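Reminder to self: tokens first, then the designed residues, so the page reads top to bottom the way the pipeline ran.
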């Protein structure tokens, strides 16, 4: 299952609290990428927030994977998860052509 993960701010967290965890955060994100959990990783162009595309068996699995990130574990960031499914419109449009 593909899952879109949108980072959101945690109220009251100051920028200086991030610094001690950034290297560990990057390492864990890389590990999740190497294991095929994080399929794509971006930063938004309009704000400082990560956008991840995950490949997980369930939303619960995605939550566990994201929970292993140091910034999430420390309560510095959180994610909104959006489960995705394949677009069905082509099948509706072209089903009779086959």
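Designed residues (98 positions):
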């Amino acid at each position: 299952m593909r899952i879109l993960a949108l980072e959101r701010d945690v109220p009251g967290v100051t920028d200086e609290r991030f610094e001690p965890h950034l290297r560990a955060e990057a390492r864990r994100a890389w590990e999740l990428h190497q294991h095929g959990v994080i399929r794509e990783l971006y930063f938004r162009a309009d704000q400082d927030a990560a956008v991840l595309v995950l490949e997980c068996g369930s939303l619960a699995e995605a939550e566990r994977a994201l929970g292993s990130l140091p910034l999430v574990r420390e309560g510095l960031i959180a994610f909104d998860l959006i489960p995705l499914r394949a677009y069905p419109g082509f099948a509706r449009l072209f089903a009779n052509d086959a």
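Residues 90 and 96 are 11 Å apart (CA to CA).
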